[in-house]
Amino acid sequence: MAKGDKINFSTPSGFPEFLPSEKRLELYLLDIIRRVFESYGFTPIETPAVERLEVLQAKGNQGDNIIYGIDPILPPNRQAERDKSGETGSEARALKFDQTVPLAAYIARHLNELTFPFARYQMDVVFRGERAKDGRFRQFRQCDIDVVARRELSLLYDAQMPAIITEIFEAINIGDFLIRINNRKVLTGFFKSVGITEDKIKSCIGIVDNLEKIGETKVKQELEKEGVSGEQTQKIIDFIKIYGSIDEVLDKLKHLAQNLPETEQLSLGISELETVIAGVRNLGVGENRFCIDLSIARGLDYYTGTVYETTLLGHEALGSICSGGRYEELVGVFLGEKMPGVGISIGLTRLISRLLKAGILSTLAATPAQVMVVNMQEDLMPTYLKVSQRLRQAGINVITNFDKRPLGKQFQLADKQGIQFCVIIGSEEAAAQKSSLKDLKTGEQVEVLLVDLADEVKRRLG
């Protein structure tokens, strides 16, 4: 770059950065999510941001995701090495696009060090090369949990997922939400029973999964493009539009299975769905929080059983705020054995962006400090430092103002950062071992002995 050339330092498109108030909100939500995950016994792990490309693409794991490959960029004085630096084949590397595929590789790498069923959580950043737009990012944080077993995994783990989703979103207090539950075996079994050939079932399920995005008319058109007859298409539409209470939907499904040919897989899916619903109820999840929705399929091919999507009622345009499901083959792909798993994912970066824009969430104060010790005169700085430390030792977050400014300016600085209380100590207060405590929210100012200051601040903070 020539001297004097302007550097474009704007944020790359699709790669977010946060102001302090936004980052504090993210950390607050991460703490809530972590506490709920850990209350169900999930343990944290970390996988590399970079994986071998062949791992990410193994047996169609990539799906429709655009992967960011990694190539080293060498300085000009090492030009000779540049031509040799490209990595191909098993050495090619890329940024991870989700947490689930890396989890499969992680389990394969640490198989003999883990206890099964293995329940893990991960709240890392992932990367996708999709087109950046409102609420969609190329770099974003996902909060995932998965339980993986060797050979068999109880359906009660599937039942735990709606309970976990419910606890998280009730704690965040974002309003009414609905967890929509289905089973891919129900869809696959029904498609078989109406004569959809095996080679078209996956693509047809993908079309049905887009019902909310493209509408019923477009779904019919797309199914017909796949060679599905008009009669079959109408049966599919009628099926995914089966509504009612949870028990009514289950009854309708059982009745349907009795009157269709080749319903072994359909009946198995209904039985699994019934077991999961019973478990969700036994875990105390309110009936207003979940339902059976036969249009939910989850687009990724590796889902084989229970699937979930969560929507915020009244804000359905936000899309799914938490989704996931059960898979049978994904984890074992690297080991050649059956390792069933079930998990859910919250795309936290996207969720925060959309909830802030909709006014459902608000950012936090720019600083975690609850108190500012103002600087009245430089010779009292030793006192200010001692008072600040006593407050911190009492569990109160404190900023000590080291710069001498007019008192009003210091109040403005504290208020701008969302700090509620200012501690004022002049010569007279220091001599009497007292302070003035000013509440910037109410304007009230009271005199407090230094020995009682921490207790008084805590009392007022509630």
Give an overview of the whole structure:
The longest helix is centred in the N-terminal third of the chain and has 20 residues, at 20-39. The chain starts with 19 loop residues before the first helix and ends with a helix. The protein is of the alpha+beta class and 462 residues long. Helix 13 (381-393) links the parallel strand 12 and strand 13 (398-400). The protein is built from 16 helices and 16 strands. Helix 1 (20-39) runs antiparallel to helix 5 (156-172), helix 6 crosses helix 7 (198-209) and helix 6 (184-193) packs antiparallel against helix 11.
Fold blueprint:
Elements: H1 20-39, E1 43-44, E2 50-52, H2 53-56, E3 69-70, H3 79-82, E4 93-95, H4 100-109, E5 118-127, E6 139-148, H5 156-172, E7 177-183, H6 184-193, H7 198-209, H8 211-225, H9 230-240, H10 246-258, H11 264-282, E8 290-292, E9 303-312, E10 322-327, E11 341-347, H12 348-357, E12 371-373, H13 381-393, E13 398-400, H14 407-416, E14 421-424, H15 427-431, E15 434-439, E16 445-449, H16 453-461
